[in-house]
Amino acid sequence: MDSLTGRLRDLAVGAGFLAFATGQRLRTGRWRSDARTRNGKVGEPRRRAPGPRILVHGVSVGETNALVPLVEALADSDAAPDVVVSASTSTGFERARQLHRGSREVVRFPLDLTWMVNRFLDAVRPEAVVLAELELWPTFMAACARRGIPVSVVNGRLSARSFRGYRAWRPFVRPMFSRLALVVAQTDVYRARFVELGVPAPRAVVGGSLKWDAAQKEPDPAQARALASSLGIDADKPLIVAGSTGPGEEAALIRELPRGCQLLLAPRNPDRWDVVAALVPGMRRRSMAPGAPPGNDAPPPTPDPPVFLLDTIGELTTAYTLADAVFVGRSLAPMGGSNPLEPVAAGKPTVIGPHHEHFEDIVTTLSAAGALEVSDEPMRVITEWIRDSAARKAVVRAGKNTLSAHRGTSARTAALVLGILAV
């Protein structure tokens, strides 16, 4: 009777989650695409290593990028696991394929429907599952529990808003949280929230953010030169890169662009690329000349103001290496903010707006060390940096020191995940 009650509860919770997600997809038009590509039909991933198979899953581009050092740490460990990577969104899936091409299998995570989840698990056959941040789906969690597959959350994050939402449904979601074999939370606050929602306290630890390690990859100078050449960026004029921007920010940045500076916009959402391109007549778009080498046909006239659009996936880190200063977007209005670590790791003076709730701990750490500026007037801050090289260099130096102090999160997290398999 208890198992029947639990099964019915799982179905009820899953139906609620699915109804919410379906409404979101119908409103955004993603349902048709997701129904074709997230149906659990992934084929059987080829085994590349003799060890246990671990599925490592991130939702979109940000999580996919952050998971790279963890995936590498797992694959390089003595356990030699066969790591399969998955993603939910189409952009996350494409980014994962770019990052892991030739080294490991990449599959599309299914919608949370019983037959799709079972089809997916039958094909992938993981001995363990690792989820980034907070990607818990009731049907998937229940299916893993029935098969005896331990599920871990790494880089665990529960924002105040998400926590309130889950807490309101705590009697229903508690069994799902209690099934987690391990939670490696980013902070003490996040760990406490996971425990309150049902994760047994001994299974929840604080491990920091994987994004600290993910941001410390060496840039490719050749790729940066090719990007600058294809867009026609003038190397003799200061370039401001605005990464992962959101609605309203691009127009404001264009209006406040300092005289004599260039601006490269990289909107977070691909659906907005055309809208942003229309803000400046003749704005040069990366997608229009993705591989134009230097010395070919003369580039089109420079737009006025000199604004460029990065409308491709996976090149933002390269763009940061070209910058004289960086603004990190989705932070001038309540949109949660974006990851400031990549431009800081690239050695660029970086400013973020006051609304950065999704990266609160990282921003607090960086700003306290003098490695990041928080301001609702980013162009004013950048103008001061352009005029004052000493101030600019001080911010960059503080960033390098802070990043060095936070290395090693991925290796520690990998050891914890592998410890679950050893039990």
Task: Describe this protein's structure.
It is a single chain. The protein has 423 residues and is an alpha/beta fold. The protein contains 19 helices and 14 strands. The strands form 2 sheets. It has a 7-stranded parallel sheet with strand order 3-2-1-4-5-6-7, with helices on both faces. Strands 10-11-9-8-12-13-14 form a 7-stranded parallel sheet, sandwiched between helices. Strand 2, helix 4 and strand 3 (106-108) form a beta-alpha-beta unit. Helix 3 (61-75) runs parallel beside helix 4. It is globular, with a radius of gyration of 22 Å. The two termini are 30 Å apart. 46% of the residues are buried.
Helical run tally: 19
The radius of gyration is 22 Å
Sketch the major β-sheet. Answer: 7 strands, parallel
Q: First CA to last CA: what distance?
A: 30 Å
Strand order of the largest sheet: 3-2-1-4-5-6-7
Instruction: Give the helix/strand class.
Output: alpha/beta
Q: What level of helicity do the residues show?
A: 40-55%
What spatial form do the alpha-carbon principal axes imply?
globular
Q: Kindly estimate the percentage of residues that lie in beta strands according to DSSP.
A: 5-15%
How confident overall, as mean pLDDT?
A: 90
Would you count the extended β strands for me? Answer: 14
Stretches with pLDDT under 50, minimum 5 residues: 292-296
